[in-house]
Specification:
The protein contains 5 helices and 11 strands. The chain has a 9-stranded mixed β-sheet with strand order 1-2-11-10-5-6-7-3-4, with helices on both faces. Strand 3 and strand 4 (52-54) form a beta hairpin. The protein has 202 residues and is an alpha+beta fold. It is globular. The protein has a single domain (31-201), classed as Glutaredoxin (3-Layer(aba) Sandwich), CATH 3.40.30.10.
Length: 202
């Protein structure tokens, strides 16, 4: 696996850590960075609100971050549906930000990102859709140990990328990523449980 040398597999028994109640009594298995690193610095264009955002705009929040592109024919729709589900389940709870970063500089302009956000009924006050130059976006993905490649395969839509959901803690440390990428419903259920318990207990 691409990240084996960077990460250690841990079983995180979250009810022991955050006191899960009867409505949210789960175990979550995730990869945890052996030595959590600060969220890399970035400045990217935003499809909503202020023209550009940086990592500092998400300080003090839990952040769930993914990489996608709007014409993706494979995993992106499932990833975005799960991001939508995270937003719906945590509606009204403060301290959560979702961040989706396009890897397709050429096709995903601001207008296209806005259309995509509308497709998934995104509340853009907490779900950001960002874009930037190939150098900036691919560089950020590389710093986060997320695989992003251009691809000539006709079924790829032009890119081959990981479906990983990165989880950043409020102190802006890159701490976890969800196993099974962002496409496994039961693992997203566990992530929702963890975030809901942690945020409501703060």
């Amino acid at each position: 696996m691409m990240m084996t040398k960077y990460l250690t597999l841990l079983s995180l028994i979250l009810w022991m850590l955050v006191g899960c109640d009867k409505e949210c009594d789960v175990e979550i298995t995730a990869y945890q960075f052996k030595d959590p690193q600060p969220l890399p610095s970035f400045t990217l264009e935003s499809a909503f609100g202020q023209p550009t955002v940086s990592q500092e705009d998400f300080a003090n929040d839990f952040v769930v971050l993914d990489f996608f592109f709007t014409s993706c024919p494979s995993i992106c729709p499932k990833m975005s549906r799960n991001m939508q589900r995270i937003q719906q389940e945590l509606k009204g709870i403060d301290g959560i930000s979702l961040v989706s970063i396009s890897i397709d500089e050429r096709r995903d302009d601001i207008h296209r990102l806005r259309e995509y956000a509308a497709l998934y009924e995104a509340d853009t006050s907490t779900w950001s859709f960002l874009r930037g130059s190939r150098e900036d976006v691919f560089g950020l993905a590389d710093a986060l140990k997320i695989g992003v490649l251009e691809s000539d395969l006709p079924t790829s839509g032009g890119f081959d990328h990981s479906g990983t959901f990165i989880v950043v803690t409020p102190d802006q440390k890159v701490t976890y990523f969800v196993t099974g990428d962002g496409t496994e419903d039961h693992e997203v259920d566990d992530l929702i449980c963890f975030l809901k318990q942690t945020l409501t207990d703060r």
